[in-house]
Request: fold
Amino acid sequence: MNLGASIISESSARGLRGMYFDFDGYGELRRVDYENRLREFLNSKGYRDVVASEEPSLVVDALEKSNAGNSSTALLLFEPLLSFVFYV
Reply:
């Protein structure tokens, strides 16, 4: 298993697959073999502050921290709750 596939596997194990990239992004990540290519990939997706490491758990940890303040993700998770509250 290459580096990108290992990162996908780690994020899936944590229940986080689909949280950071779109479908095409995950396809591109699956083709990442080396740390320098991972750095290029992360930069292209706007994750310049995320560590590019050969250790998948460190990358997923950094993605979680980087995405913690992402209001668009928070809104996506919160919106169904609002719909439910106003529907009832």
